[in-house]
Write a sequence for this structure.
């Protein structure tokens, strides 16, 4: 089956990381090590470190080194939107690139309004969906 929208490995792993941090910080309030998450989820620790650096730069998580170190959310899960996470990981979201460089018929495209509508709807949905809402299932 083909996917209309493809989710990158970075976005997928980033959402897993953020969901785990949301669940653990609401229960324990402790810092969670990336090694622990990598082992538990079968992900690369180095890949999680790259993801954590992007999330930390965007002030969505905070880290602590040493014994008992790791990462935790920098603010509550209900105040972090899925949109913020995705933008922190890979930059602005574009469902489709409608410009002359990408598409030779962009200026007279009859489906452009559909993609524009879907893009706006997607952005609105991502902005109103909190990390808390999606982390309940992890």
């Amino acid at each position: 089956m083909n996917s209309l929208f493809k989710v990158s490995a970075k976005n997928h792993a980033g959402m897993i990381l953020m969901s785990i941090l949301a669940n653990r910080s609401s229960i324990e309030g402790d810092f969670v090590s990336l090694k622990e998450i990598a082992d538990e989820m079968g992900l690369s620790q180095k890949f999680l470190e790259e993801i954590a650096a992007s999330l930390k730069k965007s002030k969505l998580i905070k880290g602590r080194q040493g014994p008992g170190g790791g990462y935790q959310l920098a603010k509550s899960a209900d105040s972090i939107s899925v949109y913020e996470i995705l933008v922190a990981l890979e930059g602005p979201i574009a469902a489709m690139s409608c410009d002359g460089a990408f598409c030779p018929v962009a200026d007279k495209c009859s489906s452009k309004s559909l993609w524009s509508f879907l893009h706006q709807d997607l952005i609105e949905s991502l902005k109103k969906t909190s990390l808390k809402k999606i982390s309940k299932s992890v």
Notes: The beta strands are 61-64, 70-73. Residues 111 and 117 are 10 Å apart (CA to CA). The radius of gyration is 17 Å. The chain has one domain: 9-135.
